[in-house]
Amino acid sequence: MRYALQWLRSVLFIGQMYLAMLVLGVAYLPYALARREGALAACHAFCRYVRWSAGWLIGLRSEVRGTVPEGGVLIAAKHQSFLDIIMIFGALSHPRFIMKKQLSYAPILGWYALRLGCVPVDRGRRGQAIKDMTARVKSGALEAGQLIIYPQGTRVAPGVKQPYKVGTAVLYQELAQDCVPVATNVGMFWPRHSLYRKPGLAVVEFLPPIPAGREPRAFLAELEQVVEAASDKLMAEAAEQLGRG
Question: By CB distance 3.0 to 4.6 Å, which of 25, 53, 84, 179 could disulfide with 74?
Fold first, then answer.
């Protein structure tokens, strides 16, 4: 009975989340059209709402740990579900994502992402995608802020191993900025291919920065080591919660 009730709550949560996206997207549209800060305010409001509604509707609390970076910095994050996007974006003052090109065409989400200065790339053309990514970031058309990339290139379920792609190292080298790694355990509660949401404490953790100037291969190896180790630790913490439940 409890499992069936959680399923029902999960479906209701997902439905009202996307309804909130529509309502907030329309409500903030005049402000967003007038100023980029309007788009940023809309997305921050949505992030706050999703975290709040997840807490009371499905029992999924969320916590951001570590030192949240300010200013121009590259952020390389573990990606397990939509929730880590929401938590990372909501924690940062001026975030933008390196995102797959297809998302540019998504209703509401795509327009707001482009208004924020997110950088769309075609993942199907790997070499050209890297060139496009670095060119757009270095062009100066983007305002200073926190640029977020997912080094594995896609959502990766807990326990699944997937290599870190060279594009992150190229971007790190070209930008000549510190890189802040980010670990998470959100996939333990918010699976990538299921509507079911589990109660518990989802965590995103900002880790100590990797200074600019490292050799690209050494940087990528260090990034993978610290993110995977910290994420494994957070997932073990989540597994203990779920075991008690």
Answer: 179
